[in-house]
Amino acid sequence: MIRIYLVRHGIAVDHAERGDLPDDSRPLTYKGRRRFRRAARAFARLGEPLDHLFSSPLPRAVQTAEILAGALRQANVGILESLRPSAPPEALLQELAKKAKDAQAIGLVGHDPQMTLLVALLGDVPREAEIDFKKGSIVRIDVGELPSARPSEPRYWLKPKTRILAKGLPIAKAEKPIPDKPAKRTPSK
Fold it and tell me: CATH number of the domain that 72 lies in?
């Protein structure tokens, strides 16, 4: 099995706040760097080294990958064009099969919607489930041979704010509807 770590980039400068800045150029905010630095250190304490760490070419993903590489004391961050937000997950898996042939552990730093689509694809998430993949989260899914990534086994996800490991995948819990209460009857006198 190959350990795949899906990492959504940290909190970035809001496009609405900086309308003059193209979306592809948005960097991490101070809060995004600080929060992800803490998450990266928590991940490093798990003692799960990476054979390869790849990032989208966009600055916010590269900065996130560099923080993770620093925490893991890993020198290289590779850039994959197939980690751009609009690239289909299948294209990424094809490229990984070529670039990381004998790898046992691969880190992928990217963006939504691609990261959420990868969680759904690799984790066999039912269509009706809502994936809650927050910025700065790390999701581990063990997969078989690439590019099929079958069989797959979701392991855990690291929550970015609390740095708590949660078993399985970041699936939003559906709110249960509150049943209508029957009207109270007042005893007649």
Answer: 3.40.50.1240
- Please write the tens of the pLDDT for every residue from 112-153: 999 999 999 999 998 788 999 999 999 999 999 999 899 999
Domain count, the chain: 1
User: Distance between CA atoms of 99 and 154, rounded to whole angstroms?
Assistant: 23
Are the CB atoms for 101 and 52 separated by under 8 Å? no
- Asked whether residue 88 is assigned to any structural domain, the reply reads yes
Q: Is residue 176 part of a domain?
A: no
Assess if residue 180 is contained within a domain: no
**What six digits make up the tokens of 140?**
């581990």
Residue 61 domain boundaries:
2-167
* For residue 59, pLDDT beyond 90: yes
Query: What's the mean pLDDT in 84-99?
Result: 93
Cis peptide before 113 (omega within 30 of 0): yes
User: What pTM, to 2 d.p., does this model score?
Assistant: 0.88
Closest CA to 98 of 56, 34, 54: 54
Residue 37: how many CA atoms within 13 Å on its side-chain side?
Answer: 7
